[in-house]
Records
---
Amino acid sequence: MTMKKKVKVGNITLGDGNIYIQSMLNIRADDISNSVKQAIELEKAGCQIIRAAIPKTECAELIPALKNAVSVPIVADIHFDYRIALKCAEMGVDKIRINPGNIGSSDRIRAVVDICRRKNIPIRIGVNSGSLEKKVLEKYGGPVPEAFVESALENVRLLNQFDFDDIVISIKSSDVKTTITSYRMLHERTNYPLHLGVTETGTAHMGIIKSAIGIGSLLCDGIGDTIRVSLTADPVEEIHAAKDILKACGLSGGINIVACPTCGRTQIDLISLAGKVEKAVEGINKNIKIAVMGCVVNGPGEAREADLGVTGGDGKAIIFRKGEVLRTVPEEEVLEALMEEIRKLP
Ligand code: SF4
């Protein structure tokens, strides 16, 4: 495969080797004040690209309101009506999500392409189970990976025919395995930046599991440039989950906590301690690994790789640095002692 194409979306560049976190507003587009409020919360939580559904031309008013309120790029999500895309482009949107195959005649596609080219607005082709064309579904007998890839590439062709190349692609299925296989196939066949996600994953618990498997598998393969965790929940939850997926895949900095699962040897109230450590280190921007382990039998050994480790032992807690004992403290002082040691690290 040739070099990954770089696509500029507002002030960030997809394809530059970073993985950008995005989410979508779930407030009606005509409720500008609450949409703006949610966008500010998302940005504060760490969202790097914010998408809003724009169902009517009048709703494009939301774009400048969002642009004034946050500094992250704003994406307009548009279905079918090319005039909404034209309006959003005029209103200063940073990216448009639209499937050219759904907007009708080639004159309409050309009109969208022309304004996007003039204003340097990229287009994301977003294929999902619901948007697969009838003829593709008939050819493959259902929403299989080959169908997703063919649909995406056909949409790419519709933009390429007008010499438009500023493209990002997503192909999301609600089936995790289909999503993974589809993206792997697409990655082999194109060099456009890929927006990863599993669609319609459900409520927070299963949604996070499905997204972690789907998005995480692809990220570990080196596939993907931006991720969206879709949850039937507050979108701020999507940002927390996305950050944790990146962390679990070793793709983000910050404090990485490892903790043992506890067993019959556990000599400290580990479940509560691990939770307290997680809470206490929130917002600390150090690139370190902390191990929270239950006993001296396996704890120090298992924590050897960690920058700091804490292990329970006979009513006391032992703090380690790279497997070496630093100090022994009463159990009730362990959190404070650990925080002190964290502060000493660069
Ligand atoms: Fe059990 Fe100790 Fe291993 Fe934790 S570190 S799982 S307490 S043996």
---
Amino acid sequence: MSDAALIDLKETIRSIPDYPKTGIIFRDISTLIANGPAFRQAVRQLAEPFLDQKIDKIVGIEARGFIFGGAVADLLGVGFVPIRKQGKLPGAVVGQDYELEYGVDRIELHKDAIAPGERVLLLDDLIATGGTASAGVDLLAHVGAQLVATAFVIDLPDLKGADLLRGKGVMVHSLVAFEGL
Ligand code: AMP
């Protein structure tokens, strides 16, 4: 992609203060994906470092990770595997709890969705504290996947989620960063 043609993706993401609660700025990718050229650019930039990485599967985290994950899987010509919230997948699953500010949540992956040793890329729209992505990394380790990298449209670096993943030896690719919460 030549620089001249590049869209500033940050400009296409809507920021909504005090949602879902006071003090949080919600980074809304619905305005990015409604913009055809911006969506296409985001998908290409997510996939770009992995074009020659022999990826077998894209793993996307519910729900916004599905939007980008399906498109990146199509671009790379590989399969897509969903990680879902507890109780949504119909087959036998492996699950992983992760901490929320108040309480615990759980994500699940079909046990047979990834063969041991398959090379996977884990994708979500945004990384904040890294709790969700980190639980996804643990699930993938559980089924014996070879995690090539994680990729996000948005990083909130002040919340240190990307640092958390890098500390676990996981590569993190992201397209734009917003300071603050
Ligand atoms: P975390 O587990 O803290 O890294 O949070 C990541 C998940 O929460 C992602 O699936 C995001 O979609 C969502 N999320 C967290 N913070 C925000 C935010 N400020 N704006 C939009 N989505 C967010």
